[in-house]
Amino acid sequence: MIKVLIPYHLQTLAGTGPELELNVPPPYTARAVVQALEARYPTLRGAVVEHASGRRRPKVRFFACREDISHQCMDSPLPDDVVAGREPFIIIGAISGG
What we know:
About 20% of the residues lie in helices and about 20% in strands.
C-alpha cells in the first residue's frame, strides 16, 4: 500500500480525509499513483493530471521523501520508502499570486 496525502480541495472532491492508502500496481511511478487514485475516486479524474495530455496540472506538485518530484517524468520510479509505505506520496496545490 502506498500512502498518499492530498490537499483539502481534493479531499472535498473525493469525500475523504487527508491521508489515503492505495493499492498501486507496478511499476511504482507517479503516474501509477495518480491512476490508482482516479480509479478509486473517480471525482478526482482530471483534477491532478490533464485528460488530454496526461500531464500533471501546472498548479499541482508531487513530493516523495521530502523532495519535489513535480518536474521529473511521471514514469520515473518512486523511492523505495514510498513504495514500502514508510514515506507518503504527497500531492499539493501550488500557491501563486501577485
